[in-house]
Each structure stands twice: as C-alpha cells, then as structure tokens.
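Thread: Newbie trying to understand structure tokens

Hi all, I'm a second-year student working on a class project, and my supervisor (Dr. K.) asked me to get a predicted structure for one chain before our next meeting. I've only ever worked with sequences, so writing a 3D structure as a token string is new to me. If someone could post the tokens and maybe explain what I'm looking at, I'd be very grateful. Here's the chain:
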Amino acid sequence: MKIQLKEITIREVVDGYVNNDEEGVFGFGGKLNIRPKYQREFIYKDKQRDAVIETIRKDFPLNTMYWVVGENGFEVLDGQQRTISICEYVSGKFSLGFQYFHNLEEPEQKQLLDYRLMVYFCEGDDKEKLDWFKTINIAGEELADQELRNAIYTGEWLTDAKRYFSRTGCPAYDIA
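---
Reply by user tm_fold:
Sure, no problem. This is what the structure looks like when written as tokens:
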C-alpha cells in the first residue's frame, strides 16, 4: 500500500459539505466521500464531538486521518467521526458553549478554517485497504465483526439492511 502524508485545511474539507444521510456525506468540493458504505453511522456523543472542536479551537494537534484514493476522488478510511463533527459545526448544526461557528469573531473563524489536518492518502488494492482499516481501528471505538465484514461486502442490500436493522430509531430498534 502506498501512503503519503498531506496537510489539508478545514476550509478545504468543509467546501461543498452535504449530509444526505442514506444518500451519502460528502465534502472537499464533492470529491471526498466522508461516510462510504462500509463506515458505521455517526456515533460520537456530544462530549466527543465537542472535544474535537475544542482541540481545533485551542490549536492543539488532532489525530491523523486516513483517506483512500479512488478513481473519482477519496473516501474516509479513518476519521469519519471527527470529519463529520467539524463539518457539522462549521455548517451551524450545533454550538459549542452556546457559540455557533457563524457567531465567532472573524479571526476565530479564520483560525478554525485555516487549521491543518494531517491526512494520510492511501492507495492499494481492496485487501490492503481492508487490512489497513482493521489495523487503524484497533484503538478508539472498537469495530464489531459485522462492521469489518461491511467493509468488504458493500452494495444496495447492505444499505437497506443498515437502514432497517442497525440505526437508532430504525424499525427493528423500535420493535425491540
């Protein structure tokens, strides 16, 4: 697997951000698939999400992220929760201490948008990507065996199954 480290600003990542739930989550001018089909849904609690923004606002280093290079752009291999937290904050979906992004002073907005994320761009075949996905997900929020299988077997069937069986508030969850 070929891996190259690059610095990407938050301004670049949030460019063209759109969160269409089942249809996908995209950023980086539409070239970054933030939640590819093999990724889990957004699971960060408010405390974790807020910690990402606090880290950036204090100009502290944030953990590295991994993007897979594809034919039509990039996919987030690791860093989806952090990326969505950032994009949702900048787009005004939540506040931090009652302070929304659009209410920040211009220098504070600029500092946040100019913050540089450390992103590893990864290229390789499917087996290499899966092996790397397993390796980098050893720490943090543990992946269930089914989530690892989802990384291999994607498609319409999996999307429908996740919609009905694996989301909070889905039909199966409501019945249980």
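A couple of things are worth pointing out once you decode it. The longest helix spans residues 46-57. The two ends are 42 Å apart (CA to CA). Feel free to ask follow-ups in this thread.
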